Fold this protein.
Amino acid sequence: MIEAFIFDLDGVITDTAKFHYLAWKELGLKIDIEIDEEFNESLKGISRMESLERILIKGNKQNEFTLKEKEDLANDKNKYYVELIKHISPKDILPGIENLLKEIKLNNIKIGLASASKNATMVLNNLGLNSYFDFIADAAKCKNSKPNPEIFIMAANGLDVDPLNSIGIEDAMAGIDAINSANMYSVGVGDKDSLNKANIVFENTQTIDFNQIVNSYKAC
Ligand code: G6P
Ligand code: MG
């Protein structure tokens, strides 16, 4: 029996992934490290500080900054990001997502959020989706970035559900690994080849089909 659907935010509920990319790119200009779309893929689902570490390693500058300077850089990136997401509104909900949330609720299944973003609650508020969520895992309390399952386990605990009876939805490889390691059923949104470790993959949010998920979960 499915007890919960646990969602990633960026790239699943709304396309904030592009704003994270633009904000990192802006920071990259400041520290002279080029960030392209391909490299950005490897940052999806990864926490702010760990993303910065990966960027510094890419630019071979991992030993150039003190911890305080790194924190300042991460704060700068966040300022750019917050500026970009200020004007997010319900029109920025990805296609099909609100109907999916409604269908889950109609079936009396709990809904949780497992995003690595410390801005998640603000984004959900701006989208007007807060009331659908029974529990939002607090990224600030999460010590290990995806692919570690910690944030998904936090969400399952907060919802008081068994991970084995939970469905996780993700657009990033690290996220699918996190869901699988949490012993949840994994739903990928995006490219079938790169998300090949997911139990089921939909090409985009519009095509996510509640009944198909339930049936394939039951069959496995
Ligand atoms: C999500 C995004 C990442 C982002 C992380 C932290 O997982 O996919 O790109 O780095 O959240 O977001 P934050 O808003 O806390 O910087
Ligand atoms: Mg994502």
